Amino acid sequence: MQVRVIGGGLAGCEAALQLASRGFEVELYEMRPNRMTPAHRDGSLAQLVCSNSLKGMEPTSAHGLLKRELRMLGSFLLQSADEARVPAGESLTVNREIFSRSVEKAIASAERIHLHREEVTSLDGDLPTIVAAGPLASDALADDIFAKLGGERLHFFDAIAPVIETDSIDMDHAFYMNRWEKGDSADFINCPLDKETYDEFVCRLREAESVEPRPFEKKELFEGCLPVEEMARRGENTLRFGPMRPVGLGLGNNGHKWYAVIQLRAENKEKTLFNMVGFQTRLHYGTQKEIFTLVPALKNARFARLGAMHRNTFIESPKLLDETLRLKSEVETAHHLPPTWFAGQITGAEGYTEAIATGWYAAWNLANTLLHGKTDELPPESCIRSLLHQLVSPNEDFQPMNFNFGLLPHKQDYKKKEKKKLLAEQEELAVREWIASRRPFAT
Ligand code: FAD
């Protein structure tokens, strides 16, 4: 049976691999390198466009729990992430080139996946389809989606954090340490600022000129990914309580807590590049250099990449999708569309791991629908089902959403301290039972 997947990013590659492993012939369309997006660097599949971290691994963190669930469900992209892992405390941080190469190898060796380096410009077609064209879907496809599916074209801002060459960091003014000394090795470089430097830094950020948003971009900034200059404008101490918080990083030479600290995280295993954690920005390039080199450890920093800002696009999932990420039947019928699922950031599921998770789930439900004539939903206690429940619930002010503990169903009045542990146990039990009742699991 033949199916189509639009987009060779995180969601699309996971979906294609899942479908091929269940016997489908997959026509996978990726427009790069022929047509690039404003953020991707080249034609590689499953490219991580900004941070190289897939965030925490511990099941007591929301992202750790979602990852554990995806591992139980046999995610291919998490296997690739493990192969590409670089040391970074307890987070799953990867070398982005090795990660992409590993996914490309899996796609190339899956005989049932036929990769087309072509832009898809319309939802029309005969094959059951998963649309995973991402937040930077090409204009032609985005226009067709919005023309057919109606609703306002939705955007929010995302911004890329700068990357620094390691040998340009002045280690006389910086030190290696993970926050709270977690993990076996010290993987983060910390760049402290005293009060005077911090005040100057914040003042310059507040006054600095940013890239002027275009009229269609003048929407709210996405709260989970605020540019640093916006944070600085919100209050003098906002950065000190945010990405520059000094807690868990020991004491300065004067025996007192550091006043503020910028953390740098390794970009690659060789640790030749480090990115500024939480320092996404839309300042002009020259201004970024002027301000960031005020930090003593960064006074001679060479920037391998500077921060940038991009438009993101997502559909109105609450109005358009059911809980399996399929277009509502009346929408498919009205536009004579084949069975169509959406996956990845274009659904409003925000984040790398969430993109992989929605790719897995759309593929699972497409497979069940075509093979068995019915959908097969994960249990309500699972992370993925909880995230999707939130995405498709009625919401007049729909905005992208990361997975978080608040989305999991709370059966009892758990005490705050033990809540995460109990929710994680409840999720694990339900997902294990669900998998056990579906042997053999490969449908
Ligand atoms: P993508 O990985 O972008 O994949 C979509 C693919 O579809 C792309 O390869 C694209 O070339 C292709 N495509 C688009 N249109 C067409 C077409 N018409 N025909 C064929 N192919 C097409 N999340 C995080 O967790 N951490 C971050 O640091 C982070 N930073 C981000 C920075 C930016 C600038 C943006 C835009 C998003 C960021 N995100 C981040 C959010 C999100 O997690 C990523 O965008 C993630 O890659 C989404 O996965 P996806 O599979 O939905 O889309």
How would you describe the overall organization of this protein?
The chain is an alpha/beta fold. The protein has 13 helices and 16 strands. The chain has helices spanning 10-21, 62-72, 76-83, 96-109, 139-149, 195-207, 228-234, 285-292, 317-320, 329-334, 352-372, 383-392, 416-436, and strands at 2-6, 25-29, 53-56, 85-86, 91-94, 113-116, 129-131, 154-160, 163-165, 175-176, 188-193, 260-266, 273-276, 303-305, 308-314, 340-342. The strands form 4 sheets. The protein has a 6-stranded antiparallel β-sheet. Strands 6-2-1-7-16 form a 5-stranded parallel β-sheet. The radius of gyration is 22 Å and the shape is globular. 47% of the residues are buried. Mean pLDDT is 90; it is low at 214-220. Flavin-adenine dinucleotide (FAD) binds next to helix 1, strand 8, strand 15 and helix 11.
Largest sheet: 6 strands, antiparallel
Strand content: 15-25%
Shape: globular
Bound molecules: flavin-adenine dinucleotide
Number of strands: 16
Q: Structural class of the secondary elements? A: alpha/beta
Distance between the termini: 15 Å
Spatial ordering of strands, largest sheet: 10-11-12-13-9-14
Cα-based radius of gyration, to the nearest Å = 22 Å
Average pLDDT metric? 90
List low-pLDDT spans.
Answer: 214-220
Helix/strand order: EHEEHHEEHEEHEEEEHHEEHEEHHEHHH
What is the tally of helical segments?
A: 13
Q: Helicity range of the residues?
A: 25-40%
Domain MnmG N-terminal: 2-370
EC number: 2.1.1.74
InterPro entries: FAD/NAD-bd_sf (IPR036188), MnmG-rel (IPR002218), MnmG_N (IPR040131), TrmFO (IPR004417)
Binding site for FAD: 7-12
